Amino acid sequence: MKLTLKIWRQKNANSKGDFETFQMDNVSPRMAFLEMLDALNKRLVEEDKDPVAFDHDCREGICGSCGMYINGHPHGPVPAITTCSLSMRYFNDGDTIWVEPWRAKPFPVIKDLIVDRRAFDKIQIAGGFISVNTGAAPEANSILVPKSKYDDAFDAAICIGCGACVAACKNASAMLFVSAKISQFALLPQGRIEARDRVRAMVEKMDELGFGNCSNTGACEAECPKEIKLANIARLNREFFKAF
Ligand code: SF4
Ligand code: FES
After folding, report:
1. Computed from CA positions of residues 197, 206, 123, 205, in that sequence, does the dihedral angle turn out positive or negative?
2. Any idea what DSSP says for residue 240?
3. How many whole angstroms from 221 Cα to the centroid of ligand 2?
4. Distance of CA 193 from the midpoint of ligand 2 (Å)
5. Closest Cα to residue 74, out of 4, 175, 159, 169?
C-alpha cells in the first residue's frame, strides 16, 4: 500500500507544533500500525532526520502507553483495541492517515506523539490502593464474594490507564478512569474498609489536576479500548455521595 501520513510534530510542551507529511510506500497490510511507524523512523534515522517520538512498551494491549489519535479516534478507528493492536489491514491503498497526540491540559505534550500521563499516577497514588498487610495468601474461600460483584470488579480492573477516555472527552474528564479504579475496590469486601477515604482523595486529586467533569456524553465509553462501562461513573458518584 501507498499511504500519506500527516503526523503531529512538536519539540516540547512549550513549542508550537504542526503536522508534517510523510509518504510511505510498500506498507504491508500484515504490519501493525506501530511497525509502520517503526519503518518510517528507520528511514528518518537513515536520512539523518529526527524520528517521530511515540510511546509504547508491551505492544500487547496491556501497558496503556501507546495512546495516540488516529484519524480522529483515540487508538484509531477500530473499536475496543489499543494502537499497538491496530493492524494496517484496516487501511486502504492511497489513504491519508492523521496522527496526533492526546489533547488535554492535564496531559502536556513531551514530544511529538508522547504526552505526560503522570497525572493518572498522582490520582492513583492519592488513594487507589488497599493499605492492609496481606501476609500469607489466605484460603480462597475465607471471604466469599458474590459472582456478579466479582465479575463487575474484574471488568473495572482491566482499565490500563491509557488516557483515551480523557482524550475523547470534550471536558477532558478523567471520570471513566477514576471510576474504574474506584469500582475495582468498592465492589469487594477488602476494598470497603477504606472506601470513603479513597473516593474522596482520588476525586479531590482529579479536580486539583485540572480534569473536567462528566457531562454524560459517553465518548469515553465509546473510545475505551477495554470497554469500561459508564455504569462505573454512576457507581463513583454514589460512592462519593456516601463518603460525606
Ligand atoms: S477507562 Fe478505558 S480509556 Fe480510560 S484509561 Fe482506562 S482503559 Fe484507557
Ligand atoms: S504498547 Fe502497551 S498497550 Fe500498546
Report:
1. negative
2. H
3. 19
4. 33
5. 169
Classify 201 as helix, strand or coil. Answer: helix
Nearest residue by C-alpha to atom 2 in ligand 1: 224
**32-46, 90-104, 125-139: the lowest-pLDDT one:** 125-139
Residues 89 and 26 in one domain: yes
pTM, entire model: 0.96
Atom of ligand 1 nearest to the CA of 227: 2
* pLDDT per position as a tens digit, 51-81: 999 999 999 999 999 999 999 999 999 999 9
On whether both 65 and 182 belong to a single domain, the answer is no
Ligand 2 centroid to residue 67 C-alpha, Å: 8
Count: domains in the chain:
2
